């Protein structure tokens, strides 16, 4: 078994981590993860933020010891996934993008059956299932079949199931994709509670608000590389102004030319123009003084979407 204490509470450490996909039957290999470095400490929520195809899920699969490393080094709980895969997986909880619940079983039965995979005593599994049903707010659904649950309930059950073995690290791959706002906020509250209880969270997301809500630290990924890392607040402060003025015009090109001197910088998107300024209202007054009248104007605080746009010139949903 590994000794994670050597890294002063570092549960995951990657140095120059690479993943190369080679198509079956030949063809050109593609580098999905292109030499990244990161550390995850005990008790923190660490995020991978980026668009689809950035390498987030590929990195997660290597950490989960289900996809071999192509290059660099990776240690999870002080162990090498190549040689200690089963030992690592026994101490992880995993929440994949797609739910893999058994829809023909009841909610409680899903927890009981999953607990047996870890060789836990039946009495312990039953006790753990009761605790997790309460955690997931599914006590009143315990004897219903999974197929009767809403999307948010299924997601909470998937997370509850991943906690049966009391994992050291919980891996969450796009945990709230496809959920409505109310279900997302309830799930965030459950994950925040887990973090308070000392569970280390590793998650991928392309939702800026999710990363800001849940992550103590994060890396921003694009095309298999890390383009920035830090705390959400630190990344925003380091790469953006305090506020952003979003403007829409009938003739965006003409308007952009007239106000190009305003703000610290500007970004042109297909449907709007962004003016970065520490005081968005002052920037809007300056726009009006030029004689240009926007169709709509919105002042908001800068966020992680703006960090990504600043670093790559693209939005997270491009």
From TrEMBL:
Keywords in alphabetical order: Antibiotic resistance, ATP-binding, Nucleotide-binding, Transport
SMART domains associated with the record: AAA (SM00382)
GO biological process, one term: response to antibiotic
Keyword flag ATP-binding: yes
GO CC entries: plasma membrane
SUPFAM superfamilies: P-loop containing nucleoside triphosphate hydrolases
GO MF entries: ATP binding; ATP hydrolysis activity
Pfam family, one: ABC_tran
Annotated localization: Cell membrane
Residue ranges of domain ABC transporter in the record: 12-248
Bilayer disposition of the protein: Peripheral membrane protein
InterPro entries for this protein: AAA+_ATPase, ABC_transporter-like_ATP-bd, ABC_transporter-like_CS, ABC_transporter_ATP-binding, P-loop_NTPase
Superkingdom in the source lineage: Bacteria
Homology family: Belongs to the ABC transporter superfamily.
PANTHER family in UniProt: ABC TRANSPORTER ATP-BINDING PROTEIN, ABC TRANSPORTER ATP-BINDING PROTEIN NATA
UniProt name for this protein: Lipooligosaccharide transport system ATP-binding protein
Taxonomic placement: Bacteria, Bacillati, Actinomycetota, Actinomycetes, Kitasatosporales
